[in-house]
Amino acid sequence: MQKVTRDILVNKAKELLANGTVDRVYGWKKGEFAYDVTPALFKSEKELDEFVFGDFCGANVSKYLVAESKKAGGKILVFLKPCDTYSLNQLTTEHRVDREKIYAVGIPCEGMLTGSALKDKVDSVLSVETEGDTVKVETLYDGVKTFPASDLLPDRCRNCKSKKHVTYDELIGEDGEVLDSGRFDEVEKLEKMTPDERFAFWQGELSRCIRCNACRDVCPACTCEKCVFDNPKSGLENKAAADSFEEKMFHIIRAFHVAGRCTDCGECSRVCPQHIPLHLLNRKFIKDMNTFYGEYQAGEVVGNRPPVVNYTKEDIEPSEAVKRGE
Amino acid sequence: MQRIGVFVCHCGTNIAGTVNVEAVSDALRKEPGVVFSTNYQYMCSQAGQDIIKNAIAEYKLTGIVVCSCSPRMHEATFRKTAASAGINPYMVEIANIREQCSWVHKDTLTGTEKAIILGRAAIAKVNLNAPLTPGQTPVTKRALVIGGGIAGIQTALDIADAGFPVDIVEKKPTIGGKMAQLDKTFPTLDCAACILTPKMVDVAQNEKIRIFSYSEVTEVHGFVGNFDVTIKKKARYVREDICTGCGACTEKCPQKKIPNEFNLGMDTRRAIYIPFAQAVPKVATIDPDHCNMLKNGKCGVCSKVCTAGAIDYNAKDEFLTEKYGAIVVATGFNPIPMDKFDEFAYSQSKDVITSLEFERLMNAAGPTGGKLLRPSDGEHPHTLVFVQCVGSRCEACAEKGKEYCSKICCMYTAKHAMLTRDKYPDTEVYVFYIDVRTPGKNFDEFYRRAVEEYGVHYIKGMVGKVSPEGNKLKVQASDLIENRQIHIDADLVVLAAAIEPDKSARPLATMLTASMDTNDFFTEAHPKLRPVESPTAGVFLSGACQGPKDIPETVAQAGAAASKVIGLLCKDQLTGNPCVAHPDEMMCSGCSNCEKVCPYGAITYVDKEFRMPDRTTKVRRVAQVNEAVCQGCGCCTVACMSGAMDLKGFKNEQIFAEVDAICR
Amino acid sequence: MTNTKRMKEDILRMSGVNPRKCMKCGKCSGTCPNYDEMEYHPHQFVSMVEEGRLEPLLASKSLYTCLSCMACIERCPRGVEPAKLIEAVRLLKERQKDGNHLTANDIPARIDDDMPQQAIVTAFRKYTK
Amino acid sequence: MRKIAKSALDSLFAAMSESKKVYLPVDGEGGARYQLWTEGTVLSEAVNTVRSAKDFFFPQTENLVEFKMEGKKLDVIDVRRETEDFVIFGVRACDVRSFDILDRVFLGAPVDTYYKNRREHGVIVSLACNKPAETCFCQTFGIDASAPAGDIVCHMTDDTLFLDAKTEKGEKLLATLEGVTEPCADSAADEQKALIRSRLDKLPLKGLTADKFGGDKTKEFFNDPAWASLSESCLGCGTCTFVCPTCQCYDIKDFKTADGVRRFRCWDSCMYSEFTKMSAGQPRLTQKERFRQRFMHKLVYYPANNEGIFGCVGCGRCLAKCPIQMNIVKVMKKLGEGGDKND
Amino acid sequence: MSVTNEEYRPLIVAFCCNWCSYAGADLAGNNRLAYPADVKIIRVPCSCRVNPAFILRAFQRGADGVIICGCHPGDCHYTSGNYYTRRRMALLFSMLDYLGIEKERTRVEWVSAAEGAKFAATMNDFCKTVAALGENKRLEDLRCKK
User: I need a surface site. Which of B266, B525, B603, D206 has the fewest CB within 10 A?
Assistant: First the structure.
């Protein structure tokens, strides 16, 4: 599926390490299986032997740059998919990363598979191979199964918002365009439900939450020094879901805190061990902000002012805002 | 844990009539932290306050809850009481059981129940209160006045009179402003120069006042009491300290054909010039756009004739930074441009003029030496038409005019009409008006005199069209009272142009973080109660920069602004509002969201070194609140995702505690 | 609703004019080139419509002496647009005159090759109730 | 040993439900999870539930005690109630082993009475794994997925479920099921066991051993340079901990209710930066230290205190759920390799 | 039949900004304009001080309705605070609605210091609306129930 190969990236990394542009590289290391690559830091040409790249390298590594860019040393090389570049811009806007310390190489992306989405469809995966848009999965008990890639891609890739890199120091391959995605379709579907149906839907989803905090900890917008939910002084602290209220509180407040800052990278839903479609909360805010206050894409431009910290004198009244769709 | 005393007020029967005060004080006695609870007829009375003071001493109270009327009534009273008994005034909370309970609920049972809940919320809050001390910042005892018109002059004089140094920054080569261009003033008809120029001289001679003429403010930093202002002194190529204002240079300069701004281009000046005879400072200025010496190095006549040796062709713009405690904006107004009003033929005929041009035509020091002559041919005009409301009171969306009433036009038009008829009884004067607005002392009498004694023709209606034909101006207008359309062959048409704030005001407002309305007038802190202060602490408003004004109003406002400034500068220290935002630096992520929403620019960011929990040191970007500037709205606390920003006196945990107490 | 009231509403709807915006300055009439030919002048149209005095207007030949030069619209400082109001009164009058001046059946006979489609539609709209 | 036709499972659960509540894995949004059996509930065929079965004995949150205040009077209320009997059906071999591991913690002195109460009332009906997944490595810890422990051990073939009571509790329960089951030879499930064993042999993680770990290996591994790179991209979330059947750490917190204070405990994760925070702060300040703690506990500290038994059962949940795909298998393979000398 | 069978009364938390709405509530008191005692007011300096977490907390603790009152847009004592309130609450309320939580339980109302009558009328109306919805079930925390 991916048009760039491991070798192209490794050669680029070696070149930049050799000429001193960077002194370390964020990339991926091979795992036990086809799908379990791990983001990792490579500090020398020799270490790059373990560098892998493929259709499961979907993790948004921007968040690691928050800590990494503040460390001493030279620049860090990162390979960013189009959606990752939005996160990097947003983090730059919020002064959370030192952009000067980062050497971003934009890489094209054909959509990234994820282990969890794959294993929703197939059990006991031994190996995965992609040829063009076909994915061949070898299994323990059901032989080799073939899927069109679109069947296995997670929502964030099926409804990819942009193949354009909004920031990079160097680009591999051609840059793409901002896409007209159907990413709000699912939100609209929910909006069209009756309140009772919506409540039942979310109750069902959110009640599975185990408050492992994976969504928060992977989120490139959640970079607070200390999250309010971890801080006893905040009045919001709670450690593990105690009842249905706490889950709602956590997810509403988290979505509110990232509103206007969330780039819709979809990492929250990717990592949720309970497959809660958390991106639908963030997308609701994005959609509302677009309709109420005009189109806004977090991370599109460094220094942009998110709608929640902005206003116009003619803004919609809250009473009108909830009337939409009636 | 606090030791809290609860004091329930009967307010006569105001509270006790609907609330069982005994039950309230009994119930609240059981709340956590409460060590004393009582009720009394009038807590705000001396006797009531004594109960509080005694209880503080006897029970070693650390927190006070008064269940009484609205805190807007007596919070200050009880805070003083607490302070006089030795506890921090901010350890007092009021439960409003009168306006928001006994007065709106009829039933004693529900009233009492609610009073207890409100009391509980106040107790829950006090439990988490911390003593607050208002911040103190020193005050730089010097004021800056931006604008040297009558508003700025009066403000500066009044401030200087109180003994404080004042600097005036004026962008033109002389102070005096619009008033210096006026001929006579309504309704007394005294000559503007006669009353203004002595004030200008006072300014020049006052030891406390420095004039930065031909200068502009380019940067403003700091906050109330502590502004740092950068002033650009534009190069005038004449040394101010040496020039004697003799005028020899202005006579000899070979560049003669430069339109004279002071007379609104109706005559000419030289490339080196003194705007008018009474200019302050009376020094020459070289106009670099027209000076041959500056443009191509060929001339130098002025330098040769200057016996004082004041000419300096190599002068450069100078920048100086000064400290001020207060800033007064007095940037004034201008008539709006008339080029969009084709119907009045302003750009087609020289004989269609604005009222300000008319002032110069009538002025003894004006282009015609005070004789009313037509600009086109220098003939004496016989028929004059005055048009009121040109560009004023236009629809909001109309691009050419202003929506507001310019306020001064009715009176000066009456003045012009009257003066014309007085000096030249052979003239016919027509004034077209929509309404004649004369609310002011002796104003309507003045207008009536113009009609009754001087025979000015006031016609209710508007001029639709002015067309130059030969040496006449064909004026077509409606006369609504007579229900006819009239045609007048006029010799001179005078347009009462709307006035608008000076163009320098908008960038200045940005520098000062002072707010403006859609018309670029500065907004006051409160339209009724704080009309001369801007919402930005330490920035005051004087004159027409705040809205259209005539001279007496301007002077009155100038004096009011001065008294506000004096009040500020009298203080050695400024006591702030202690309920200000406060960041927990260890929690701050440095994202700038709080900075973005702060209406006062009170938040800045610094890079600071911290010792982290993992025993390393780290440089982090964190928010800093300038407590002297913060007004305590709390907007930043919600914009802050990490909860690092909190508001003293209304802390998150306090509000949570109140919510919990109410919902218990 | 009285007849006058309905007529007034029709006029306001057709013209899109809000006569209450008028500040009675008379600039419209001051600018009107055909003032003397008009029994009622532009500013009067505005105030008479607002006050509901429609009968005299409908009976007046002023309806046809307005040149529709739009000078009053151009000059009005409050954006009242008197000419549009006059046009609306004129239209109302036309529509009142014995009802329909034109029926759909009349049209084929009147068509000639040079007549633009839009003119037919406009005429139909103007002269039919 | 007794048996019942697979098609008649409903009657089995119905019979069990007569005396006890029956919980069993059910497929749902996002995977299988334990649910109370009611008429029509269908047993999941998934090899593992998303959350482990430890919830039954050690729930995510549990009330310990309540305090009520009136004026200055403080009442302490014990909220413990005798738990009703219940059955957990379909527990896999790994999860069954996890109960042993939890028992050693909670039932050792001082006994955790909350845990004990639940444990005593639960009957464990285990089910051998017909299709162990690629992430399974229970064999590493000596667990035989073809022959799990439990009060009753079950094997399922295409058409039949075999039930074999192993404990007194199990026999009692099985006795109540005589009406719906029929007896069969003790060897009836042997064929199925053999099939499972052959499948276990083919698992990709079959060769993984824990031989190099054990209670005496603290010094060997504590300062292993590999910890730095292994923990490099750890997000510090609690996913691995919360899906783990053997993680047993908890925090005790107070919650202010309408009229008092409720003291409860809830799962905590050693991966969290706030874990075991004391007045002087968290003893493990970096993610590397926290990461090391979790795996050292499973592979070294736990065996050190528990006769060499490892604290991991090889269920593979963390392999499937970790957001960055770091897991105990990678750790076991990497440690002691001697690479990564950079740190 | 028992006489203690009380009619259901909702619990309403009202956040009022100090400068306009709190004064408006005082004015309602001054003019003796009655509204239900179900309304309990919390004073905040500006409506923009109201954190969405406060609102959720009120619901958690048993409130049946939460109303936020501030100065009319354009009249904020702090010039722009209520503009931010308006955005935050529009988004929050829309999100609550999206989660299927009755939107009638939350409201923002602009009440000036002169609008005592509006304050009382607003509270009467809000109490009626919330009372009609009944107890808050969708955002309740069972631990906080008596």
Answer: D206
B239 shares a domain with B225: no
Please tell me whether residues B170 and B255 are part of one structural domain.
no
Question: Do residue B466 and residue B346 come from a single domain?
Answer: yes
Mean pLDDT of chain D: 92
Backbone angles phi, psi at D331, to 5 degrees: -65, -45
Say whether both B186 and B276 belong to one domain.
no
Q: Using CB atoms, pick whichever of E30, E34, E57 lies closest to residue B659.
A: E57
Mean pLDDT check: name the lowest of A308-322, B505-519, C25-39: B505-519
Q: Which amino acid is at C105?
A: N
Write out A48-108 in H/E/C secondary structure. Answer: HHHEECCCCCCCCHHHHHHHHCCCCCCEEEEEECHHHHHHHHHHHHCCCCCHHHEEEEECC
Residue the block writes with tokens 């909190």: B646
Same domain, B211 and B246: no
Domain CATH code at residue B641:
3.30.70.3270
For the domain that residue B116 is a member of, what is the CATH number?
A: 3.40.50
Q: What is the ipTM of this complex?
A: 0.84
Angle, in degrees to the nearest 10, between helices A244-258 and A195-206: 100
Give the DSSP per-residue string, A196-216. Answer: HHHHHHHHHHHTT-----HHH
In Å, how far is A18's CA from the nearest CA of chain B?
Answer: 29
pTM of the entire predicted model: 0.76
Best of A68, A69, A70, A95 to mutate (most B CBs within 10 Å, chain B): A95
For residues B262 and B364, membership in a common domain is answered with no
- Give the 3-state DSSP-derived string for B353-364, with helices as H, strands as E and coil as C: EEHHHHHHHHCC
pLDDT tens for residues D111-123? 999 999 999 999 9
Q: How high is the mean pLDDT of chain B?
A: 93
Strand runs labelled E in chain D = 2-5, 21-28, 31-36, 61-70, 73-78, 86-91, 122-127, 152-156, 160-165, 182-183, 250-256, 260-267
Residue finishing a domain among B264, B288, B315: B315
C23 to chain B: which residues are within 8 Å by CB? 393, 434
Residue B510's pLDDT band, with cuts at 50, 70 and 90, is confident
D69 to chain B: closest CA residue: B32
Q: Is residue B662 part of a domain?
A: no
- Please determine, for residue D342, whether its predicted confidence score (pLDDT) is greater than 60: no
Please report where in the chains the tokens 């844990």 appear, as a residue.
B1
Q: What is the DSSP letter of D315?
A: -
Residue A210 at interface with chain D, using a CB cutoff of 8 Å: yes
How many whole angstroms separate alpha carbon E98 and alpha carbon E79?
A: 31
Please list the residues that pair with B468 across neighbouring strands.
B473
What total of structural domains would you count in chain E? 1
Tokens of D222: 């504590």
Q: How far is C8 from chain B (nearest CA, A)?
A: 23
CB E17 within 8 Å of CB E70:
yes
d(CA D147, CA D165): 12
pLDDT tens digits, one per residue of B484-497: 999 999 999 999 99
Adjacent-strand bridge partners of A138: A127, A144
Please count the structural domains in chain B: 5
Q: Which of D72, D258, D286 sits opposite B664 (nearest CB)?
A: D258
Q: Which of A264, A258, A249 is nearest to A300 (CA)?
A: A264
Can you give the pLDDT at residue D341?
42
Question: Is residue D70 within 8 Å of residue D64, measured between CB atoms?
Answer: no
Of D61, D233, D237, the CB nearest to A214: D237
Q: pLDDT tens for residues B382-441? A: 999 999 999 999 985 567 889 999 999 999 999 999 999 999 999 999 999 999 999 999
Same domain, B597 and B571: no
DSSP helix, strand, coil percent of chain A (3-state; round to 5): 40, 15, 45
| Neighbour-count burial for D326-338, b at 16+ CB within 10 Å, e otherwise | bbbbbbbeebeee
Nearest chain A Cα distance for residue D177, angstroms: 33
